[in-house]
Amino acid sequence: MPWFYLTFGIAVLLCIFFLNMRRTSRKDSSREKIARTIGDFIEGKGLPDDWDDFTSIPLKDPELDRIREACVEVGFSFPAKKSNAWCSPEGIAELRKIQTRCLAQP
After folding, report:
1. Biggest alpha carbon distance in the chain?
2. Position 5 pLDDT exceeds 90
3. Nearest of 91, 102, 44 to residue 68 by alpha carbon
4. Alpha carbon 49 to chain centroid, angstroms
5. How many domains is the chain partitioned into structurally?
6. Which of 73, 65, 104 is nearest to 91 (CA)?
7. 59: pLDDT confidence band, cut at 50, 70 and 90?
8. Is residue 97 included in any domain, yes or no?
9. SS3 state of residue 56
10. Is residue 11 part of a domain?
């Protein structure tokens, strides 16, 4: 029985640690950086993990994070038709629209 309490306590501490780490690991960014990241992804430029990092790590600014979330949604709304693609051509067109709106807003 003591092992149960010890294991349970360690699990709770690990959950608290990882939840806190996720909450504090939000990134700073700007509209220009986001637009550049989207453009680099569309054009096949940038490092392999750039897009994954962008879509996976929440941003500090709620407005910019909504842009990031809209990009994530593109992958679900416009699934890839080829196995080596992230989204369909229609999804790429939607990402271009998001990029344009990102730069157009103040």
Report:
1. 61
2. no
3. 102
4. 11
5. 1
6. 73
7. very high
8. yes
9. helix
10. no
